[in-house]
Amino acid sequence: MKGYEKSIRVIEGFPKEGISFKDISTLLSNKEAFHEAVDDLAAVIKDWEPDYIIGPESRGFVLGSPIAYALGCGFIMARKPGKLPGKVIKESYTLEYGAATIELPEGLIKKGDKIVLFDDLLATGGTLKALEDLVSTTGADVKGIVTLIELTDLKGSKVLKAPYKSLIKYPH
Predict the structure, then answer these.
(1) What is the CATH number that goes with domain 49-170?
(2) pTM here?
(3) Residue 32 annotated in active site
(4) Spatial separation of the C-alpha atoms in residues 91 and 39, rounded to whole Å
C-alpha cells in the first residue's frame, strides 16, 4: 500500500448517512504522501503527452495543477457557473441529487489539443462525463481521464468514452 493511500481519511456518514467520504485533506497535509501521489499521477498521465490537464473545482485543481507542472503542460480550471470571467462554454448534466453545469473559458482549448481530465475521485462519473463531452465540442482530443480514487461499486468509469485510470480503488 502506497503512503498516499494510507493517508486518506475515511469519514463514515458524511455528508449524510450512508456515505463513506474519502477525505484527501490528510493526504495533502502529509508532504511525503502529497509528493508521492503527484509523482505517481504524473507517471500515469505522461505517455498521453497532454497539452493541458483540465480539472473541475475544487479538488481537481489541488492535484491537477501540480501534475500539470510536473509534466510541463498547462492546466485549465473547469468551474461552476458564474465563477469564470469572460465568455465560457458549458455543459449541463444530472447528478443523483439534482442538476449541475460545468464551464470552461471559451477559446483556451483548440482543435487537436491533447487533453487529460483529472479529478480527485470518480463516483457516478457525472462531472467527468460532462467535462469530457464539453471538451469534445472544441475539437480537442481527450486522451485519457485519471482520478486518484475510484469508487468501483458506482461504476462511473462505464459512462466515460476516453481511457480511464485511477490509483486507488474503494468499493464505495
Answers:
(1) 3.40.50.2020
(2) 0.96
(3) no
(4) 31
Beta bridge partners of 142: 115
One of 59, 79, 91, 132 is an active-site residue; which one? 59
Domain spans, the chain = 49-170
The whole-angstrom separation of Cα 30 and Cα 100 is: 32
Strand order of the β-sheet with 74-78 is 74-78, 52-56, 114-122, 141-151, 164-170
Exposed (0-12), middle (13-18) or buried (19+): which is 171, by Cβ within 10 Å? exposed
Candidates 9, 36, 96, 106; catalytic one? 96
Let me know if 59 is a catalytic residue.
Answer: yes
pLDDT digits (tens, 9 = 90+) for 133-153: 999 999 999 999 999 999 999
